[in-house]
Amino acid sequence: MRILKYGSTGPAVELLQLALNRAGFGELMLDGIFGTKTKNAVLRFQSLNGLVADGIVGPATHRALIPWYTGFATHRVHRNDTLWSIAELYGSTLRAINIANPGLIAENLQVGSVVTVPLPFDIVPTNISFTSALTAYCVRGIAARYPFVKIGEVGKSVMGRTLWYLSAGRGDRRVFYNAAHHANEWITVPVLLKFCEQYARAYAYGEKIFGFSASEIFDRTNIYIAPCVDPDGVDLVTGELSSGEYFENAKRIAANYPSIPFPSGWKANIRGVDLNLQYPAGWEQARENKFAQGFVSPAPSDYVGSAPLVAPEARAMYDFTLSLSPELILAYHTQGEVIYWKFLDYEPTNSRAIADTFAAVSGYSVEDTPYASGFAGYKDWFIQDFNRPGYTIEAGKGTNPLPISQFDKIYADNLGILVYGALV
């Protein structure tokens, strides 16, 4: 995390303001502007946590705020500690602590041992801009609170950022959901992370999700989620990446396509390659289509790259999908409240019926992909090579990037799709 101080702006400040609110140091507006109220809250936090009270959020203050970024604290057991006293200290519950610490014996706490303590708020925020750093905090938080959720790397981005995955389930059937192949469709990142958190909680507490037993889903299906395929591009669009070599290069690329607003119109990876035009499924036709539209060099969107799978993010998704061999995939995008379900003449068994089920629970329409956009996408390649159901879900309506104020509706519309994807 970068150093934040009076006058700083952007999504890192939004997250700081959220963390300070979570920690009880203010009712700050989450506006991403480090003004007087935010500085005063930082000063109070620093004073009460034994830090130098200078109002500057550097490495030490960020470290102290990590529990309020991730949603959990770690407590080293002292003499006379009990689980009850630990829960009371952090505003947690005995049940939450037991879920986060399988095998922990309340009557046999060892002095010096470390207990993971879930904090009393949801991990995944749905009211601030997302970044690669916030994605990582959410992934860590979900895995800490619900250790039956496994996490790992699909690969690395151009800038070396982790392409995370989470998985939950023990069934033989595997499904794979991913989001944010396109940078300015970043609102899909919290959609998948919030689903993972809600599903994990429902399983841990023996509850239902969208009317179905989470335990039965867990026993039947292993759900894999890659919440952010293009973290570099997301950081560019949301403003977290606003200087330096990669930013300046992206700015030069965008200058060649002045009709596309910068950075809000940026869909590509940080090198200007559209990740959803990188898969070996009619890539040559996609190249012909996009070159005819004028996208002949690295661009904010629609440039297919010099060859399939040259972008490390696309190559990582390709390799991971091959190793996983899922029964079904969902690729989340934004624009139109539409479900795209086929590629050329490929119609995997039950794929149309599943699409109709998704439409029924979401209110979205089922459509064929337009020809000009119908090649070299992740969904296209999956259907072609696996002959199994694959779907591009276009969530929400408006101008990308969709505002975070649309999150609640998008999530409500798509929860049924995410649940049924594990059941059909």
Terminal CA distance reads 41 Å
Strand neighbour order, sheet with most strands? 3-4-8-5-9-12-10-11
Architecture of the largest domain, CATH level 2? 3-Layer(aba) Sandwich
- The chain-level structural class is alpha/beta
The helical percent reads 25-40%
Strand percentage, roughly? 5-15%
Brief summary of the model shown:
The chain has helices spanning 11-22, 36-48, 59-70, 83-90, 94-100, 132-145, 188-204, 214-220, 231-238, 245-255, 283-292, 312-324, 351-362, 378-386, 407-420; strands spanning 72-76, 114-118, 150-156, 162-168, 173-179, 208-209, 212-213, 221-226, 328-334, 338-340, 365-367, 390-395. With 424 residues, the chain is α/β, with parallel strands linked by helices.
Describe this structure in words.
By secondary structure, the protein is of the alpha/beta class. It folds into three domains: 1-67, Orthogonal Bundle (Muramoyl-pentapeptide Carboxypeptidase, domain 1); 72-118, Membrane-bound Lytic Murein Transglycosylase D, Chain A (Roll), CATH 3.10.350.10; 125-424, Zn peptidases (Aminopeptidase), CATH 3.40.630.10. The chain is 39% helix and 14% strand. It is built from 15 helices and twelve strands. Helix 13 links the parallel strand 10 and strand 11 (365-367). Helix 1 (11-22) crosses helix 3 (59-70), helix 6 (132-145) runs parallel beside helix 7 and helix 13 (351-362) packs antiparallel against helix 15 (407-420). The longest helix is centred in the middle third of the chain and has 17 residues, at 188-204. The chain is globular and about 70 Å long.
